[in-house]
Amino acid sequence: MFGRNVRLTRIAQNQSLHDIAAKAEIDWSYLGQIERGERSVGLDLMDALAKALELELFELLRPDYEQSLTTDLNFQADNNEVSAPTQP
After folding, report:
1. Which residues does 78 contact at the CB level (< 8 Å), separation at least 6?
2. How far apart are the first and last CA of the chain?
């Protein structure tokens, strides 16, 4: 769940693996493994990733995060604040 939420946020923010990995001071390939759920993550790294995404850690741990992210993006798009990513 955590890795998926990191990925969803990174994509919604139009940031690359390299961008977020650099901010969290980890290798981009390690971040990719976290996003795919292939690696376990300690609290310190979780916090660093949340900060790199400019979020509070609890937000990335919410089970309903994907739904709330989609709702926020749709609201912003409706108000011409940002362009919401399109789903394939």
Report:
1. none
2. 21
